[in-house]
Give the backbone structure.
Amino acid sequence: MRLQTILTLSFLVLTAGELQRKIKPKGGKACVHGKVHDVLIKLGPENQRVGKCKEKCLLDDKCVAMQFKPPKRCSLWYTPIDSMESAEGAYCGSVNLVDVEPIKYTDAPTTSPTYEKDFVVEPYTKCAGDINWNRAKLLEQYTHVSQCQRRCKKMQKCKSYQWNGRQNTCILIKYKVQSEAVPQTGPTRVCGSIAITTDAPARSPVIAASSTKAPTKPPVKAPTKAPVKSPVALPDVVANTKAPSVSLGGVSASTKAPAMYVNDDAGSSDVCTLRAKLVFPFGDDINDADFYGYHADYFQVENTADPETVCGGAYKDELPEWCTYENSNPDKDTAYFASLDDAFAADETVDTETIHIFNASGGTFTFAVSHLFFDEDYYSEYQGWEDHVLAAVLKIKNMTSKTQNQLNPEGWSHPTDIKTPTHILDGGKWKVNPDYQDKFVVTVTCDDGCQCDASYHLA
């Protein structure tokens, strides 16, 4: 009988070093081998990069070398290569076994939430069957099984994980799996699956009494008629200290503004373009969202040189000449996500906003970001539906300067606190929580050489 252990908020700790497979592909190099590759993989349109080829090799126990040639040729060898030669655009890398001392990992204070999860962990096992990669993700940054389990525990949708100590890979899986035994030699291999989970509703979310499925658009739309001024009151004085960071713990996020970014390298005065994107902290893959729920933010831009116009999704049919607006979902005019259980994956979505500002040299622009409040805080009675903390992030990039890139690499967002939801109940009725900080403004000023400063203020 295989050893079965139940871990509750604890981690498996190894006591011996592990040999882990590592690859460091070298750019501009092709692999030289006495024979043709053993495996040729043509990478799909979304996977055409060297990292995916490296991943294919690390996941194949027989692979000892890999080569990537754009746009999609990934070659794997099962015997060592002879050498490398120069080849423009190509990447070649060999597998090296690295002896890594184990990390004794203990619970430490964290600002991220954790969930009461009991894992059934079977050492020297792998997860049975083919992994559905549409519902799983591969991580390579960890060095110990405890880190893999910790990440699964923090990710609300993670129900299973697989750790391979030889390949140093962690796979997070959004569904429960069975395990199967592997030889009890070499580095540790573990398949862990959640024993009990009751966090998510057992039925499809219902937004209105007559609804039978989750919404595919925000229950409340942003304004559809352009006001004379932005709905966010713009400050007379803008602070210039430190940007807020999203806090998932019990301590409120900072409300100070970011340090002003100044770059002395002059750009072109003929063309000066800024690109502003409103995106979510987990990116464009809803599977990476740490919480269930719905969240919508939107932003609008004003140009001091043209005070009668506003650029934004609410005005996409009457945009001024100095900007363009684009939404990843052409039918939407907000940055919006719906993160649901896998049973309702068809209703999940991530929508983002992008605005381009043209001829920005010598101009000042205000980027006003607001949260769009729904009628109520849906499913807040369930653990893991803390969608209010996943505020959208505004990122502004100088597209013209050769040296100035993102005006703030981390971006800006309105501060959030896991204990401060968007709504509160008052006499049995939902109302907007007055303590939820839902607006901020970033002011960007560009000189004649297209070098831009940015400052942040809570509205």
In short: The CA atoms of residues 69 and 365 lie 43 Å apart. The radius of gyration is 25 Å. The mean pLDDT is 76. The longest strand covers residues 83-100.
